[in-house]
Amino acid sequence: MSLRPGTVFLSDCPARSAIEIIASKWAVVTIFALSKGPLRHGELVELIGGVSRKVLTQTLRRLQASGLVERRVYAEAPPRVEYGLTELGRSLEEPIAMLTEWARSNGEAVARSREAGIQAADAD
């Protein structure tokens, strides 16, 4: 892949659009949560700390429209709805697992650096 100006992630590039879809913290966390299998909306809310029902719904809709998540409605009373990864969505499992492992291993270092930067900015 070339890194010359104008060759990576042009504004109309499909790769850039794909990155924008999964760049949201809620998209990555939602895909990671669904990597273990289909879940209901309420289960996702419980599993993903800090996400509101509204934001999760918006995230699921965006991921569904992008072909990464599928919504299954079961003909039961009351209706049961589950969300799961599509084949395309499952192709993100390994990269997101690697990113998650990096975050677990380096999260404290990042937090310390951010705190040091905030303190330095306050001292100016």
Enumerate the spans where pLDDT stays under 50 for 5 or more consecutive residues.
none
CATH class: Mainly Alpha
The sequence of SSEs as H and E is HHHHEEHH
Number of domains as seen in the coordinates = 1
Strand order of the largest sheet: 1-2
Number of helices: 6
How many β strands by DSSP? 2
Question: Which percent band covers the strand fraction?
Answer: 5-15%
What does the average pLDDT come to? 89
Q: Can you name the CATH architecture?
A: Orthogonal Bundle
Shape: globular
Radius of gyration: 18 Å
N-to-C terminal Cα separation, in Å? 41 Å
| Superfamily (CATH H level) name | Winged helix-like DNA-binding domain superfamily/Winged helix DNA-binding domain
Task: Report on the biggest sheet.
Answer: 2 strands, antiparallel
Helix content: 55-70%
Structural class: mainly alpha
CATH topology: Arc Repressor Mutant, subunit A
Describe the structure.
With 124 residues, the protein is mainly alpha-helical. It has one domain: Winged helix-like DNA-binding domain superfamily/Winged helix DNA-binding domain (Arc Repressor Mutant, subunit A, Orthogonal Bundle), CATH 1.10.10. Helix content is 60%, strand content 10%. The protein is built from six helices and two strands, in the order H-H-H-H-E-E-H-H. The protein has helices spanning 14-22, 25-34, 41-47, 53-65, 87-90, 93-123, and strands at 69-74, 80-85. It has a two-stranded antiparallel sheet. Strand 1 (69-74) and strand 2 (80-85) form a beta hairpin. The protein is globular. The termini are far apart. The model has no long low-confidence stretch (mean pLDDT 89).
